[in-house]
Design a protein that fits this description.
Helix content is 23%, strand content 34%. It is built from five helices and twelve strands.
């Protein structure tokens, strides 16, 4: 096992072991803990396109970054660690906006994501310098435009991002504007 382990979860969401991060995602992925983070600044959200070399959902547009807390690691500490690892930046004002988010999705190749995945928003402290093995492209987009895109063409972004947008307040009906409560607090912090 490497030093990059994930925490496995039972059906009730309780920790029940660990597994190597690289080995855990496959055709029968066990439920495990993760997180998603949306970087927001000036009414815009950082969208990233997953590297083409990624095992699951290669080349798919999604939220700013995702990751897994290590055994014994606080999830907010994991958010900070992954911001540096994937985007090459520090973040501030990290806030959980969907503490109970959980999803299971299968990509076109059959790889399964099966995660208890609280969703955070944060503010970037620098210009992103993404790691090419994590991010193929990135763009800052108006929050309202992204929410509208998800409503109109959910197939164009990752399934977890679609569900996150739908579960955020006002996100389910495409009526999100720059004053979206979860996003505006992060961008104005």
């Amino acid at each position: 096992m490497t030093n990059d382990s994930v925490v496995l979860a039972d059906a009730d969401g309780r920790p029940c072991g660990t597994a190597d991060r690289e080995a855990v995602h496959g055709f029968d992925t066990p439920l495990h803990f993760a997180f998603s983070c949306h970087l927001v600044a000036d009414g815009r959200i950082l969208m990233t396109r997953r590297a083409l070399s990624k095992r699951s959902w290669p080349g798919v547009w999604t939220n700013s970054f995702c990751g897994h807390p290590r055994p014994g690691e606080d999830v907010v500490d994991a958010v900070h660690r992954y911001a540096v690892r994937e985007l090459g930046i520090e973040v501030a004002d990290v806030r959980c906006v969907l503490p109970d988010f959980r999803y299971r999705a299968v990509d076109a190749s059959g790889i399964v994501e099966n995660e208890i995945c609280p969703v955070f928003v944060a503010r970037p402290l620098a210009t992103p310098r993404p790691a090419p093995d994590e991010v193929a492209e990135h763009v800052w987009a108006d929050v309202a435009d992204v929410w509208s895109l998800v409503e109109r063409t959910p197939w164009s972004v990752s399934p977890w991002f679609v569900e996150q947008v739908r579960q955020l307040p006002n996100g389910h009906d495409g009526s999100v504007h720059e004053t979206h409560p979860a996003m505006s607090r992060a961008s104005n912090a």
